[in-house]
Amino acid sequence: MPMSRPLRDSLAPRLAAAVLCLAVAWIHVQDQGGFPGNKTPTYVGIGYYALEATGVLCALALFAGRSLPSRVLFWLAIAGVALGPLLGYILSRGPGLPDYSDDRGNWTEPLGLVSIAVEVVLLTLALTQALASRPAVGGTRERAGTSPRQRSAASN
Questions:
Q1: What are the Cα distances from residue 71, in Å, to 59, 64, 67, 102, 130?
Q2: Rounded distance, CA 48 to CA 37, Å?
Q3: Cα 92 to Cα 43: distance, rounded to the nearest angstrom
Q4: Rounded to 5 degrees, what angle do the CA atoms 62, 21, 72 make?
Q5: pLDDT in tens for each of the 156 residues of the chain?
Q6: In Å, what is the CA distance from 73 to each residue of 77, 129, 149, 154?
Q7: What would the DSSP string read from start to end of 3-17?
Q8: CA–CA gap between residue 25 and residue 118 (Å, rounded)
Q9: What is the C-alpha separation between 131 and 152, in angstroms, rounded?
Q10: What is the pTM of this model?
Q11: Is the distance from CB of 48 to CB of 28 less than 8 angstroms?
Q12: Can you tell me whether residue 27 is helix, strand or coil?
């Protein structure tokens, strides 16, 4: 019986992550008032641009295919697309950021809540895929569902 590709190699998680990366970028373009937008102070605006560019580049790489030099590092970079704005949300609404108090205490802003939902799903997916992509102890990962006999036959 032929084995299906492991989840880590399938199109579904890559497509979902690509769409979520684009959603993160789009949400932040909307929050800054369009493109090029106006987010002050300057370091916050630069952070928005960096996040948006990274989200789009990661999405394009995910759409492009599976030939990535390091899947684990790539999925961790995608996790960064989610983790960065999550930390920014917490810091900007909690203690505040230097010269930026516009959102302090504004925990229920609708676009912010949508952003959190998208980023939590993306972070969970990216970390799950990073864990699934790491090599097993000894440098090889056995295919799920194969018996020792099948693995032995495949190695001969």
A1: 14, 14, 9, 38, 7
A2: 10
A3: 13
A4: 50
A5: 343 444 445 789 999 999 999 999 999 999 999 988 888 899 999 999 999 999 999 999 998 876 666 788 999 999 999 999 999 999 999 998 999 988 899 999 999 999 999 999 999 999 999 999 887 666 555 455 555 555 555 555
A6: 6, 10, 32, 29
A7: PPPPGGGSHHHHHHH
A8: 11
A9: 25
A10: 0.79
A11: yes
A12: helix
If you search the block for the tokens 């190695």, which residue do you land on?
A: 155
Cβ neighbours of residue 37 closer than 8 Å, sequence gap 6 or more: 29, 45, 48
| Cα four-point dihedral sign 78, 19, 130, 11 | negative
SS3 annotation, 83-103 = HHHHHHHHHHHCCCECCECCC
